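Lay summary. Proteins are chains of building blocks that fold into shapes, and those shapes determine what they do. In this project we predict the shape from the chain. Here is one chain we studied, written as its sequence of building blocks.
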Amino acid sequence: MHGHTDIDGRIAQGWGGAKPNGVHVNVILARRGSPTAAAITTAFTSPSPGFTPVVVCTGVDQPSYETVNPPTILLSKVAPATERAETLIFGAAQVGTARGILDAVADGLLEASQETVVLVSLWVDPEAADEPAVLDSARQAVRAAVTEAVTGRSPADAQRLVESRDSLTHPFYGGS
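And here is the predicted shape, written in a compact code that computers can read:
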């Protein structure tokens, strides 16, 4: 890693792709044995209907599953409304998450070891239908979020938000 050793508790978000196959993620990084890792483990061991966390793995069939390192816990932000949505989350989005995490390893941002734990809270558009596009969107979103969590945002970007705070908006905000 490029000197990024103090990543415990780092948090960021990332967006990938375009509607309707876009993916939004929130990422939390933790060091094994830390209170942050304990909180992630608690989230993993406290499933609720529609929100079953999974350890991100990959493989051509169930007997060949391999855990992605660093261990990554994937949690959907919303309960899948249809079987198709569930398949996209646990299939295409999981593979995209795995690839995004491994991109971060290849970039030198994370180590491929058990020393870091990653929580990825993921939203897949309910209208999504294109598996390869969802996979690519998840990969892009995860890579962007991990990059921001590890390296931080520039002081200029942070200051720009402060200066424009009175005009900030969001797609889910309908006011002015």
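What the prediction tells us: The two ends are 44 Å apart (CA to CA).
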